[in-house]
Amino acid sequence: MDINIIVPSVGESVKEAILVEWYKKEGEAVEKDELLFLIETDKVTVEVQAETTGILSIKVAEGETVAIGAVVGSIMADAGAAASKPAPKKEEETAEVTAPPVEEPKEVPPPVKAPPVLTEPTIAEKTPMLSPSVRRLATQKNVDVNLIEGSGPGGRITKADVLEFIEKQASDESKPASTQATSKETTLEESVVRKPMSPIRRKIAEHLLNAKHGTAMLTTFNEIDMSRTMEIRSQYKEQFKKRHDINLGFMSFFAKASVQALIEIPQINAFIEKTDIVFHNYYHIGVAIGSPRGLVVPVVRHADQLGFAGIEKAIVDYVKKVNDNRLELSDMEGGTFTITNGGVFGSLLSTPILNYPQSAILGMHKIEKRPVVVNDEIVIRPMMYVALSYDHRIVDGREAVTFLKRIKECIENPERMMMEV
Question: What is the CA radius of gyration of the chain?
């Protein structure tokens, strides 16, 4: 019996996807719940599993755009079951037979060892993240995949990565040896590689342009002395880890501070819809997370009702989902305010772009020791620049500056957040 393989729904607004890669080839046996193929939409990437055990039949090739619900292949379930069962023995084979006389073993010369070759199991042992199609290509071309840097989800090596590596090797080998050995001043080849934008990257580009062209965006800045927050974090991080089984990071401090500031200045937690202003009486904080496919912003829902541990656990769960390609469209919907931390990449100062249709976004940056004046004395303190980009159509400068000052007060005196004052 053939079981159809269909493209799963990943959200009401998503109508089509690109079939990026098959993890199995035509006619191969697959096991139930084994990963079959990878699809990518303009919002998420999803790995699809087999619903049953059987033999795979592929109907749609890699790289094609398919509609949600479309049939891309089938699994012959009966064939898989039959293949897994041993064939029945014939009556002649089951009958008792007289064992043939045992001949004395003849002395034979030791076998000549063949030079080692790169085999498919060797590649699989070194790189368990390879898909079958990539493994076959690497074996056929005798490529050491450990020298290739993957560009796929979670650092996965794709066919394009292998082909690009082979092309580069061929280009290097084609250069005259004498030229490479004697000439130190060589002219670099001006080569280009053209790749189509992925659906996620196209959506990110469209989203950012909408924010830039559809809002009156302005940014205000401030700086925060991180001494007290770092002291508290250092003092309680071991107890926090032991009790909650999660690390205490800076993001939970800024999320809690943002909630308090949003409660005081509701315009920043509101949207503009045509000629109306929609105020939200809940606080869904989006947290920007970088992924190999692009920036995603999953939402920590009802952050006002969560403690520090709850916020940290939610963020860690989302990071795992992003790395495992399990992030769902519903995880990124409904945010009312966003926090992005460019400091993890070393950014000292930046102007974050609004996560449209939200009215504001908070940018965190690198902590750096700088000389500052405290009580008329110059001291060295760990400082962080923070930026608030906001839609000037709904948020005035007074509200934006006040909001950022409130964030500064909460982070420089984190006890205030514990006491909610």
Answer: 29
Q: How far apart are CA 387 and CA 365, in angstroms?
A: 9
Structural domain total, the chain: 3
Mean pLDDT value across residues 133-140: 77
Cβ pair 201, 293 in contact under 8 A: yes
Q: Which helix (H) or strand (E) element contains residue 143?
A: none
Buried b (16+ CB within 10 A) or exposed e, 105-143: eeeeeeeeeeeeeeeeeebbeebeebbebbbebbbeeeb
CATH of the domain at 147: 4.10.320.10
373 and 243 housed in the same domain: yes
Neighbours of 365 (CB within 10 A): 24
In this prediction, residue 194 has a pLDDT band, given cuts at 50, 70 and 90, of confident
DSSP-derived secondary structure letter, 380 = E
Active site residues per annotation: 392, 396
| Model confidence pLDDT, tens digit, residues 316-330 | 999 999 888 788 888
Q: Give the count of beta carbons closer than 10 Å to the beta carbon of residue 419.
A: 8
Can you give the CATH number for the domain in which 246 is found? 3.30.559.10
**3-class SS at 107?**
coil
Give the domain extent around 390.
Answer: 202-419
Average pLDDT over residues 172-182: 56
Please, where are the H alpha helices in 250-356?
Answer: 250-264, 308-323
Question: Cβ–Cβ contacts within 10 Å for residue 335, how many?
Answer: 20
**Does residue 217 contact residue 357 with C-beta atoms inside 8 Å?**
no
Give pTM, 2 decimals: 0.65
3-state SS assignment for residue 215: coil
CA distances (Å), 152 to each of 50, 194, 236, 276, in order?
21, 16, 38, 42
